[in-house]
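Model the whole thing, not chain by chain.
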Amino acid sequence: MEFHSVLREIEQFVKSELYPLESQVWGQGWKDIYPVLDEKRAMVKNRGLWIPQIPVQWGGLGLSLHEFGQVSAVLGRSPFGHYCFNCQAPDAGNMEILIEFGTPSQQELYLKPLLEGKIRSCFSMTEPNHAGSNPVHMSTEAKLDGDDYVVSGHKWFTSGADGAAFAIVMVNTDAQNENKYERASQILVPADTPGFNIIRNISVMGEVGSGWASHSEIKYDHCRVPQANVLGVPGAGFRIAQQRLGPGRIHHCMRWVGICERAFEMMCTYAARRELSPGRVLASQQSIQNWIAESRAEINAARLMVLDAARKIDREGQYKSRIEISIIKFFCANVLQKVLDRAIQVHGALGMTDDTILASWYRHERAARIYDGPDEVHKSRVARLVLKEYDVKI
Amino acid sequence: MEFHSVLREIEQFVKSELYPLESQVWGQGWKDIYPVLDEKRAMVKNRGLWIPQIPVQWGGLGLSLHEFGQVSAVLGRSPFGHYCFNCQAPDAGNMEILIEFGTPSQQELYLKPLLEGKIRSCFSMTEPNHAGSNPVHMSTEAKLDGDDYVVSGHKWFTSGADGAAFAIVMVNTDAQNENKYERASQILVPADTPGFNIIRNISVMGEVGSGWASHSEIKYDHCRVPQANVLGVPGAGFRIAQQRLGPGRIHHCMRWVGICERAFEMMCTYAARRELSPGRVLASQQSIQNWIAESRAEINAARLMVLDAARKIDREGQYKSRIEISIIKFFCANVLQKVLDRAIQVHGALGMTDDTILASWYRHERAARIYDGPDEVHKSRVARLVLKEYDVKI
Amino acid sequence: MEFHSVLREIEQFVKSELYPLESQVWGQGWKDIYPVLDEKRAMVKNRGLWIPQIPVQWGGLGLSLHEFGQVSAVLGRSPFGHYCFNCQAPDAGNMEILIEFGTPSQQELYLKPLLEGKIRSCFSMTEPNHAGSNPVHMSTEAKLDGDDYVVSGHKWFTSGADGAAFAIVMVNTDAQNENKYERASQILVPADTPGFNIIRNISVMGEVGSGWASHSEIKYDHCRVPQANVLGVPGAGFRIAQQRLGPGRIHHCMRWVGICERAFEMMCTYAARRELSPGRVLASQQSIQNWIAESRAEINAARLMVLDAARKIDREGQYKSRIEISIIKFFCANVLQKVLDRAIQVHGALGMTDDTILASWYRHERAARIYDGPDEVHKSRVARLVLKEYDVKI
Amino acid sequence: MEFHSVLREIEQFVKSELYPLESQVWGQGWKDIYPVLDEKRAMVKNRGLWIPQIPVQWGGLGLSLHEFGQVSAVLGRSPFGHYCFNCQAPDAGNMEILIEFGTPSQQELYLKPLLEGKIRSCFSMTEPNHAGSNPVHMSTEAKLDGDDYVVSGHKWFTSGADGAAFAIVMVNTDAQNENKYERASQILVPADTPGFNIIRNISVMGEVGSGWASHSEIKYDHCRVPQANVLGVPGAGFRIAQQRLGPGRIHHCMRWVGICERAFEMMCTYAARRELSPGRVLASQQSIQNWIAESRAEINAARLMVLDAARKIDREGQYKSRIEISIIKFFCANVLQKVLDRAIQVHGALGMTDDTILASWYRHERAARIYDGPDEVHKSRVARLVLKEYDVKI
């Protein structure tokens, strides 16, 4: 099937099958709506649209990053989009690194059921006691003990841990290594390993959440796993984390573009319909016209920049695209926040309610400016990379 | 007691008695914590600090608006502050208009128990089917039938209706009046009146809430109340609404200043303590220094402007202070949003959680730019008032 | 020659031949430096790079809009760029409409010497007594008198009139036409026509200017020109003005992108070199890193959006690209202002001086947010076009 | 005379005597208009309003800082205001430090004619080769040679040096002192001292300027002056510089408030009068209403903050007011830039011209965010002072 047909079909599916879910099941816990979502997943599989981001040999559509970016923007319009196509974070990233770095046995045990949507997974990196903006500042450790690693440490914001079959955990295996980028490893820890203790689902912006839609605090208390559970080689944890970053960035940023497009539509629809007084609609107000125009401009900019970065990654690889990858992170996250803020302002009191999906996005997507590196880290990084050409090291 | 001693005592109370509640009861429904709050209210009464905004003859401290503004900034530092001193919206506003416009019988029945904290009340104005930004665009009606008014209509965002003893309802009593500012009346409707139907507590930014901390959708289905329940005279609804506006604005804006001060303290405390790497704290980052400086500047500006407006209202009345009253609304609401946003960014992942109070303020105080007139309405209003001096009518 | 070779050659020329002019002749009046510029123009002709935007049959390089956009960004890096390649405003626009709407005789008399760079021209539209943001609100009139039109009116901001051989003047020829878009015509008025009175070169941001680099106030006092001097047909003035708009927008916006790139380079160079204290350069400051990153992001966004619009105009025409054409106007003009402001802040006191070119751009390019429609007009226009899809007419 | 009468009289004078000068002499070099200005100065003296900031015993009005701040806001409305009252920078600052630190002989020679307006002076601190944002990073030196100091160094942005009778020069007298704040001294250098070489008046934002309205680059080439020309004691240069800072800040910031008020008036006047189409004025546009409201709010905030700082300095001294003094610098400078930018946007093409005074302010007052410490320095300073209370040293 030609790509643009695929894209149109996915868009059609999102609008006809997923939009209606918002009024039907939104606000219920994620765990409670798995049956409904499973039906939708089955439909996606039947239509041959399952795991679009995954290479053909692994059962996906084999889209390039530039193509999948466009799919992600369509899926992002619904809070159920990525999940129903099995390309939601963090599973999508976990699939990628298992494809690239997994041993045949790891792929058999962990990757295959993940691709099939039979299990979910999580990625356990951030720690409450260390600034997430510094990825080499970490305490969780895996100590060799015979043929096993024994993992101990304290993580949080392990998204989707509630109900996951396994975690990929970032741990120090060589904390004293002089090269701070070689201290960490990524290691597979099944959720039924003794010592894998989910302390709580963290209440985030008023919601504890459940299932995939949750963020757990986890204590790893002497979790014993075989050495064979290490991804790639010991010490490669940081490098593998980098690897998942480029594509993940495109996924996220285009998901945000999708949210923006949806919020933009809602803003326009409401402004065109809501009367200030008989016959005079909100859209007649110049302030609202300004927001529509500014939002349209910024969303266009965001989309073009992410697709440009995707094309560059497809063509030249992640390393050469580092500036673009950092730029889209802070640029798009800020566009997202502005567009959502304006959409809420247009909706007035209604925008504050959970009668529309805007309020949920407003509060949960505030995290976009924080996770995967806060704005400030990316800005400094861009500046440092740019300044290299000016013979200054800072 | 001299005012500055009162202020210091209140601040002391807020810090020692109310701050600790945040870790103890925050996140529980308001209804579930009434017993704890009632204890605190008793302490406030014992210390002679009860209803500070109310004239001495009615049992309050008789503070001027300029003084109460400063109290409100102190109380605003805790989400429990205003409630524990019985000066929370909308009860404080209802007390004021009952004092000014209530008949002796209305005061006996409604005002006294309100002042004593025995009952709560609500103010029912906003309608889902009409833009709240246009206060004369409204459908709820009260029709005369014998000695009674029969109230029918559809309201929402009636805050604190859940558990209130009565509502003051904004209704059209003369919808065809050529003077659109004389169409409405305010009328007292006891909550046990047949036809007073709370449809739901609206889920707002992820929380349904309960008790005082809720926003209800209400259908008034032929609620019959005596004519004597009208406040002031029929047709005075709009004028009375204006009356409550000036002091209410000072209360709210200074409450926001209080929130800002608290968020500012939290931001500084966290920045001073959180390490990016061993020995290097967040506060060493220039971006964070910028936010601290900009926040300090903006909060100072907000505080000075509100107190200046309060002084002017105290001295020259509301009418002459219309420009200032509108300016502080949009200026302070925007400072509040910026300061909270920065405080969350400084806290990183922690800022997204409900482990601090910031996330709750971030989402619920988004409404500050909407209720009591969105930014845009106040800006246009200021411009129109300013331009009067330039001989242009727009 | 393949396009990218052309582009590289032009960039090389700009850097080696035009950059040095800044320290040599910058600050002198334009009229005084024509000899130097004429030398450069001769070099451009010799290298076969002359009038790149013009079709091959008229002696140009026949670049598409998408290609010329990229050239314009390179030329924009120098204040002498467009002029030396004879693609400066308003001549470039005048060439375009003479090619499209000129009669053979008009082309012989006006177009050919213009293409050859033997004469200059101007475009006389804006009037001091009417808001330029409303292009159909105009007083200058051309009255038929026998075979002639007699033009009378008051214009200003006729750029480059000082020394121009002719003006294309926007005049009402049918002021009472019910269709306000058919009232105006464009008419060729030679500068030696009696009654063509340049009142003054307007002092703009501290500079009166001269020659091409000037903005004149002109009184047309019964200028008599033959009917044959009308462009296209009488009444087509507005339509022709629209015609020049799309390409002109791309030229301008990419010129601004070029200015931004140059300012960005200067900002980085200075930040990398200037010491705050021995060994600690400006670039070490996070605020400056933020500006570098934000500028890089915004310039990338601007470039991608303009090129995307150019591609769309090339492919689908101006009419279908109206939203994009308006968006790039306000978006790029604002990026330009922000980037220049940051570049000046980085340069500190030096940025205020005319020792660099930044200060000149800072003040003269402030006009970018005003000419060809102020930001506000374009925003409202975008909103109206977007809202058409939402069944609302405003 | 009671202060408010003084203030009203000054305002009256500014409006009736100084406003008209703008259309009469604006755009001419400052040197060419001294005769006109001298007439106005004579009038000011006759009315007993001369040097209002100076203590009564020295012939001034003895206003407090809080009072003079209000005067400065009135004078700032005209570009001729401060000059005509002899309280213009840098003379006002020089007067202050001569009063406080001058010897009787210095006061006789330098202060008295300055107070009388017979001579002008300059303050020579900034150096082209060192970042002005770091005041202890400086190369100019004064070497003891017998009873004399021999001053050598390179300064620029010495405002008003052209025609000044003397300079107060910041020099290192003890460059190796371990305490970097004790390395510098301030020293009086008469302009006729051999070796006092004004290289040029720097072209700033398109204008070379002359007389008081100029910024010179100066080479001090072995300027020999008696030791007695040191202000205070050797090594006190930095401390004295600090001393002039607080009052100078109030003067400047209130001057900016005055500029803002004038720009605001011009913006409102023009918006109320300029027609977009017959009968529809600019002021009817909501975007312009927004700017009017936001400007009114920000100017009010700026004024209240500066007056609050002035009151604090009057009451508690500069040291305790350091946070406020830094805050008003960056806050007011940014308000100034925003208000001027909006005023120009409202004026459209006219705003770009020198037909109004806005364009001159727009370009020259861009320096407000740079001189006396750029925004970034003040923000970091505020943050550091605030964070002291949080037990962190950064």
